[in-house]
């Protein structure tokens, strides 16, 4: 008849060492991979911003080329005034900036989209990230985690709950041949 005072199972503190060692091993492996993912996402976001800016530039140049294909009087006057420094006799030219001869006769400024704002994400500032960010500290963390796992796998020094205290110990003496 089983003893009513005996628990079904006993708590072994080795499980705490085993679980904490496994968690540290996973953290040492996953944190650098998460950094690589963060850098890849940052590069992707920068490439998408550059692509959006270039698509906007292409649309602006396309609209400008379409306007040049079918010029209106206002467009011709504007081009003559900005590029050649000519104006109709009915208008007065007011120069606000460099003299007409000193200006570059390039495309109008409204064709260029605004510059891309710098995209940057700072790395997480945590103790775990600082420990796993260098190879040496990651190696030391992995060694400590393996030590915890090994300590957790050691057999318990307490008797198991299913074994009676009155049982005879096992004799490990060599068998005579």
How would you describe what is shown here?
The chain is mainly α. It has 4 helices and no strands. The chain has helices spanning 14-69, 73-84, 127-132, 135-153. The two termini are 40 Å apart. 3% of the residues are buried.
Secondary-structure blueprint:
Blueprint: H1 14-69, H2 73-84, H3 127-132, H4 135-153
Helix pairs in contact: 1-4
Quickly list its features.
177 residues, 4 helices, 0% strand, rod-shaped
Radius of gyration: 39 Å
Main beta sheet strand tally, sense and closure: none
Low-confidence parts lasting 5 or more residues at pLDDT below 50? none
How confident is the prediction overall: mean pLDDT? 80
At a glance:
With 177 residues, this protein is mainly α.
């Amino acid at each position: 008849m089983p003893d009513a005072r005996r628990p079904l199972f006993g708590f072994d503190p080795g499980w705490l060492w085993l679980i904490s060692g496994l968690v540290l091993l996973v953290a040492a492996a996953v944190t650098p991979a998460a950094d690589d993912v963060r850098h890849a996402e940052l590069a992707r976001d920068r490439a998408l911003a550059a692509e959006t800016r270039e698509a906007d530039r292409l649309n602006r140049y396309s609209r400008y080329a379409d306007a040049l294909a079918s010029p209106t009087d206002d467009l011709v006057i504007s081009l003559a005034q900005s590029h050649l420094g000519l104006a109709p006799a009915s208008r007065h030219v007011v120069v606000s900036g460099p003299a007409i001869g000193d200006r570059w006769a390039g495309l109008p400024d409204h064709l260029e989209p605004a510059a891309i704002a710098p995209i940057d994400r700072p790395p997480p500032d945590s103790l775990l990230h600082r420990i796993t960010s260098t190879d040496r500290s990651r190696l030391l963390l992995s060694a400590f985690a393996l030590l915890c796992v090994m300590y957790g796998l050691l057999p318990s020094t307490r008797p198991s709950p299913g074994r009676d205290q009155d049982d005879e110990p096992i004799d490990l003496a060599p068998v005579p041949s």
